[in-house]
Amino acid sequence: MIEMVCPYEPGKPIREVRQELGLTHVVKLASNENPLGPSPQAIDALGRADLELHTYPDCDGWGLRDALARRLGVGIDGIVVGAGSSDLMRLVAAAFVARGDEVIVADLCFSVYANVTRLADATPVIVPLDDRLDHDLEGILSAVSGRTRAIFLASPNNPTGKAIPAADLELFLERLAPEVVCVLDLAYNEYVDPALRVDPARVVERHPNVVVLRTFSKVFGLAGLRVGYAVTHPTVARALLRGQLPFSTSSAALHAAQVALGDVAHTERSVILNEKMRARLYREFDRLGLSAVRSEANFVLVDVALEADTVFERLLRRGLIVRPVHEPRLRTCLRITTGTEEQIDLLIGMLDEALQAAGSAPTRVGSAPWRR
C-alpha cells in the first residue's frame, strides 16, 4: 500500500522562501507553531545540561514519563513517549491494524491518520465532517463494521479548529464497541476553552480502548526536537512499545520537554497571547468581510472568497507564509496561525492588499452553516 501514501506536505520553510524569492524578511503563519518559541527555561537547560551525547538516551523516557504521570495524575505505565505524536500514530497502526482492516477518519483532518492506515495495508473509511465542520459522531458510529480496528478523532480538529464538546465525546465513547481503538489527538488541548478541554486521565480511566495523543510541538514550542506522548491503558501501552524502535527520542528532546512541562508560566503566557490574537483575527476578518470558523486552537480557518492558492501565492511573494486548504469544499480557505501582534499587523495589511489585487473587495459567499 506504500504507493497509495501521499507524502506529508509541511508548510514551506522560511529559509526556502528566502532563497527562492530573494527575500530578507519572511514571516511564517502556516504550521501552528508557538510564536513565543520554547520555554526560556528549556533553552537555558539545554545550554547548561551535561547530556552525555556519546551515550544513548533513556530508552523509555522514564524521567519525562514520571513528570507527565505526576502532572496528569495517571500511572507511569500508561504513558508512552515517542518522536512526536506522528510517531505514536504509526505505533497505534502497527499494534492494532492489519491488512484488510478498516480505520475511520474524517475527510478534513491531519493527513497522517490515513497515511499510517495505508502503511498497515488497511483501508481508511472516510466519514465527512458535517455542514458545521464538526465531527459527525453519529456517522462514525454508523460506519463501524466488523473490520473496523481504530478511529482517529482530533479535538480541536485540524484544519477547522473545532473541538468536540466533552459531553458529546463521552456519549460517543460509551457507545463505541470496546474492541475498537479510539485515537484521540489532543495536540492543541491547552488552547481549548476550559469548559471544552479534555482530561486525558479521566477519559483513559473510563475507556481503556482510548489512546490520547499529546505533543510538545505546539504550546510548548519544541516542534524542532520531535517529542510527543500517548496516555492510555497499560495493556495498550505495552502493545505500542512492542512496535517502537529503540532510542527513538533524543536525550536533548527528553530533557527539554521535561523542563518545558514545568515552566507553567510560559505555557500560560502562550495561551493568553493566543486568545488575544485569535480574537483580533476574528475582528479583522469581520472588517474585511471574510468568514472564519470559531477555533479552539492556535490557528483560524478563514474563507477568503477567492481561490485560496491565488491569495496564498500573493502573500508568499510578499514574504508571508500561510496554509491553503486543498480540499474541494474548502478551496477558498486559508488556515492561518495566530502569531504576535506585529505578525498579525503584517498579515492583515498584506491580506487586504492581496484581496484587492485579486479583483475586488470580497463579500461573504456561500451559505454553509459554519460561516460566521
Number of helices: 13
Count of spatially separate domains: 2
Q: Provide the CATH architecture of the largest domain.
A: 3-Layer(aba) Sandwich
**Radius of gyration of CA atoms, rounded to a whole number:** 21 Å
Strand-pairing-aware structural class: alpha/beta
β content, as a range?
5-15%
The helicity comes to 25-40%
Q: What is the N-to-C succession of helices and strands?
A: HEHHEHEHEHEHEHEEHHHEEHEEEH
Main beta sheet: 7 strands, mixed
Shape: globular
CATH superfamily of the largest domain: Type I PLP-dependent aspartate aminotransferase-like (Major domain)
- Largest sheet: spatial strand order: 2-8-7-6-5-3-4
DSSP strand count: 13
| Low-confidence regions | none
Determine the N-to-C terminus distance: 40 Å
- Stated plainly, the CATH topology of the largest domain is called Aspartate Aminotransferase, domain 2
CATH class of the largest domain: Alpha Beta
Task: Please give a structural write-up.
- The chain has 372 residues and is an alpha/beta fold.
- The chain folds into 2 domains: 2-37 and 265-357, Aspartate Aminotransferase, domain 1; 40-263, Type I PLP-dependent aspartate aminotransferase-like (Major domain) (Aspartate Aminotransferase, domain 2, 3-Layer(aba) Sandwich).
- It has helices spanning 14-21, 40-48, 62-72, 85-96, 112-119, 137-143, 166-175, 200-206, 234-242, 251-262, 264-287, 308-317, 341-357, and strands at 27-28, 79-82, 102-106, 123-127, 148-154, 181-185, 210-215, 228-231, 291-292, 299-303, 320-321, 323-324, 333-337.
- Strands 2-8-7-6-5-3-4 form a 7-stranded mixed β-sheet, with helices on both faces. The chain has a 4-stranded antiparallel β-sheet with strand order 9-10-13-12.
- Helix 2 crosses helix 10 (251-262), helix 3 (62-72) packs parallel to helix 10 (251-262) and helix 4 packs parallel to helix 5.
- The longest helix is centred in the C-terminal third of the chain and has 24 residues, at 264-287.
- The chain is globular, with a radius of gyration of 21 Å.
- The model has no long low-confidence stretch (mean pLDDT 92).
